[in-house]
Amino acid sequence: MESLNPPNQDTLLPYTILDLSEGGHNLCGRLLGDMGAKVIRIEPPGGSQTRLRGPFTPDSNGNDKSLYWAAYNSNKKGISLSLDTEAGRQILLSLVEQSDAILESFQPGYMDSLNIGFGTLIKLNPKLVHTSITPFGSTGPYAGFVSTDLVTSSMGGMPFVSGDPDRPPVRISFPQAELVAGSQAFAATVSALRHSRNSKNGQHVDVTEQISVIWTLMNATPFPKLHGTDVKRAGAFRKKGSIDARHVFKCADGHVSMMSQAKTLNGFIVWMLEETEVDEEILSFDIDNWDIKIDSDPDGKDATEFTRLEAAIENFLSKKTKTEIFERALSAGLLVAPCNTVEDIRQSPQLEARSFWIDVYHPEFGRDITHLGSYLKMSETPLKVYFPSPAVGSDNEEIFKSLGISKSKIDTLKKQGVV
Amino acid sequence: MGADTKESLFDGLKILDFTWVGVGPITTKYFADHGANVIKIESVSRLDILRDAAPFKDGIPGINRSQFSGNYNSNKRNLGLNLSLPKTLELVKNIICEWQPDVISESFTPRVMKSWGLDYLSVKNMLPDVIYFSTCLMGQYGPHNNYAGFGNLAGAMAGFYEITGWPDRGPAGPYGAYSDFVNPPIAFGSIVAALDYRERHGIGQHIDLSQYEGAMHFLAPHIMKYNEDGSILGRKGNEDDRMYPHGIFPCLNKKRSLTSTKESWVAIAIEFEYQWEEFSKILRLPASIMSQNLAERKSNRDQIDLLISKWTSQYDSRYIMNLLQSHKIPSGMVQSQSDMWEDPHLDHLDFFQWLEHSEVGPMPYDGLQFTLSKTPGSLTRAQAMIGEHNLEILDEILSISPQEAANLLNEGILEQSF
C-alpha cells in the first residue's frame, strides 16, 4: 500500500494531523504546524468559509485574500475534499488510517450522520486522537445551539464584566471565543498525541468555546458563592471596595493602563516633583499604609486621599506621551504601560530585538506577507513559519498521489465535485 | 468504561514549580490536574500577590482564604521556602539533584532565577535533560526584558485595551489580566511537546514565553492588516463586519438567587440572510425594514437597534435565547457569574467543582479546560496552604526528619502560612 510521506522525525511533533476545523479553531493546527507536525488542512472544493473572514489584503478582489486565513493556516498543506460525496468520505477514511489526529468543528452529530464519527474512526485507527471544537461541546442542553463569537462570549461571561457601566456589555472587538478554544484544543491535542504514542491508545477530545471563555474571566466566577456578589463592568475603573480606581488614563497621544499600587503611586510623586509643583498635602499622604490592595475595602480617609492623588496623576499624565510614560515605567519600575495601537506595537524595540516580524512569501497573494514571529522560543527546536497558507487544493496532487490515487483519477474526482 | 480503566496523562511526571501569580500557575495546573506530581515552591515573606486578593472564603480576607490564587493551584503540593537565604538555595539544589524533576518552571523577571543560581544553564549542569520553562511579561532577552508587571499591562501593550469598548470613548479593556489567560494553553502545550521530543531524542531544552508576544497572536490578522495598509481596528462596541443585527440588547430585569444583580441582557447575531428573514418575522418588523440587505440594515442601524431593544426589553433573556435558538438564530444570555452557576449546560458538564481546603473548608473551583475521553483529568485536592507539605516532601526527597525540619523552620528557611 502506498503511504503518506511521514513527517520528519527530528521535529518537535512528528505527527500527521488532519485539520477540518474552521475559523479561529484553525489556531490549533497552526500551533501544531509551527512545532513541525505535518498538518493537512482539508476544505470543501469550493473553499473554506474561513477564507471569507476579514481582514483582507488591500489588493484583495472582494474577499479573495484573507489575512485571517493566512494567519491561522500557514504551516499547513491544503487539500480539497467534499464530505458530501461517498468517494470523498472514502478518501477521508484512508487519510485517517495513516494519521495521528483529526481536528474538526462540525455541529455535534454531523460526522456521525455521515458515518465518519469518532466511533467509526477509532475502529479504523485505534491510535487516533479526535479533537472536536464546538461552541458548547458534544453533549448537553446547548450542544445543538447555533452560535457566533458574540453569543459564545456572552454565554461564557466575558461581555457582562467588560465595557462601560452606563452602556450595554461589550465584547473584545476582535473575536476571541474561537481562538481561545483553538488554543485549548492545541493543549489537549498535544497531550493526547503524546499519550497515544506511549500507550497506542487514541481518544476523543472535547473542547468548548464557552468553557474556554470562562477560563479568561480571571477571578470572577467564585464571587457569587463566596461574596454573594457579581463582578460587573466598570469601564476605565476597577472596583477596590468603596474606591473606583482608574486603570485607564488619557495621555497626550492616547491612553495608558496603570495599577494603583503604593510603589507606583510613590514613583509618580517622585516623577511629578522633578518637573512640577506637588500639593503639600499630597506629599504628606501615608501611601505605604493605604489599604488599596486588589478588591480591598479602604476606609473613607484612604479613599479620599487616593482620589486626590489620582486626580493629580491624571492631570500630569495628560501632558505626557505613551513613549515617555513607558520609558519612565521601565527606568523606575512603575506598573504603568501604554494601551498600544498596532502602530505602537510595530515600533517596539523589544519585538525588534527578538526578531518578532517575519516576511513569508505567499504564492496565492503573489508577494510577501509580514507575519508575527513564534508564540514562544524553544532553545533546541525553534518554532518556524515553514511555509505559507495553502490555496484551495494546492497539495491535492502530492497527498492524493501518496494515497495511490492517480492523476487521471484525480481529474475524474474533480469533475465529480469530490476534490 | 469504569473509572479503574482510566489512565493518567502525566503519571510519574515530576514538576518543580517556582511560578506565581497567573500564567505560570495556570500552566502547571494542567499537569497537576492530569496526574503529574507538582511541587509548588511558595513563600510567606515574599507573598504571591494573588494570595492577598479577592474573592475570599466568606468574603473575609486572609492568606489561606483567597480563591483567586486557589483556582490556579489545585492538585499541587506546597513547599514553603524563603529563597532569599543562601542556605535555602542549597536546600533547593539538593532537592533538584535528588528528586530530578522532569520540568522546572518559573515566572519571575529574568534576573531573579539567575541571582539565585537557578537559571537554565545552572540547572542544566545538575539535570542535563531538564525541560526548563520560563515566562515573564516581555521575554528572557531584549531591552525591556526586566520590565515587571501584570497581565492587564501586557494586555494593554498587546493591543487588547485599544480594541475593547466604544468608539466615542476611551478604552475599557477586557475585564482582568487578559494576557494571563490566553498564554497558559500554549505554554502548557509547548512543555508537553518538549517532553515528547525528550522521550524520543533524550534532549531537554529552555522555553522562553513572552506574555506580550503570545497574547498578540490572538490578534494576528488585525496586526497583519496594519502591516499591509496601516489600518487600525479601533473600538467597535459590539459591531461586526460580516453581521447585522449584531449586538447586546436589554431584557426584563431578573432576580438571581445568589446575588442582588438585576440587569439582564441578550446577545443576538444575525449571520445569514435566512436568519434575518426569520428574525424579522418573529419581531414583526415592517416590510420596509425586513426587505433591507446587510448594507442597508447597517446604515439604518440606529432605527433597527431601537426596534430590537423595544422587543427584547419586554422579555426574560432566557426566553429570548430559547425562542431564537428554536428558529436557528444565534442568540444567548449575557451571563453574569451568578447566571453561570445556574447554567443547565455547565451543570450537565459538571463544570464547577467544590474541593475541601485544609483550613477553610469547601471552596468553589472552575472545572477543567477540556475533556479527554480516555485520560480525563480530575480536581481532587484544593490549593494547599504555603508549606502545607513541608514535612512530607523533605522526608520523601531528602530523608529530613521532623526535628531537622523544625530547625529549618526556626531558621526561617522553611515557611508556612498556618
- CATH architecture group name of the largest domain in chain B: 3-Layer(aba) Sandwich
What is the CATH T-level topology of the largest domain in chain B?
Answer: Rossmann fold
Helicity range of chain B: 25-40%
Q: Which sheet architecture does the biggest sheet of chain A show?
A: 6 strands, parallel
- Architecture of the largest domain in chain A in CATH? 3-Layer(aba) Sandwich
| Apparent shape of chain B | elongated
Number of helices of chain B: 19
% residues in beta strands of chain B: 5-15%
Average pLDDT of chain A: 94
CATH class of the largest domain in chain B: Alpha Beta
The largest contact between protein chains, plus residue counts on each side, is:
A-B, 153 and 165 residues
Strand numbers in spatial order across the main sheet of chain A = 3-2-1-4-5-6
| First-last Cα distance of chain B | 41 Å
Q: How large, in whole angstroms, is the Cα Rg of chain A? A: 26 Å
Number of helices of chain A: 17
Main beta-sheet annotation of chain B: 6 strands, parallel
How would you characterize the overall build of this protein?
The complex is a heterodimer of chains A (419) and B (418). Chain A has 419 residues and is of the alpha/beta class. Chain A has two domains: 261 residues, Rossmann fold; 105 residues, formyl-coa transferase, domain 3, CATH 3.30.1540. The relative contact order of chain A is 0.13. Chain A is elongated and about 85 Å long. The model of chain A has no long low-confidence stretch (mean pLDDT 94). In chain A, helix 1 packs across helix 7 and helix 10 crosses helix 12. By secondary structure, chain B is of the alpha/beta class. Chain B folds into two domains: 280 residues, 3-Layer(aba) Sandwich (Rossmann fold); 97 residues, formyl-coa transferase, domain 3. Helices cover 37% and strands 13% of the residues of chain B. Chain B has a six-stranded parallel sheet with strand order 3-2-1-4-5-6. In chain B, helix 2 links the parallel strand 2 and strand 3. In chain B, helix 1 crosses helix 8. Chain B is elongated. The two termini of chain B are 41 Å apart. The relative contact order of chain B is 0.13. At the A-B interface, helix 2, helix 6, helix 7, strand 6 and helix 8 of A face helix 2, helix 6, helix 7, helix 8 and strand 6 of B.
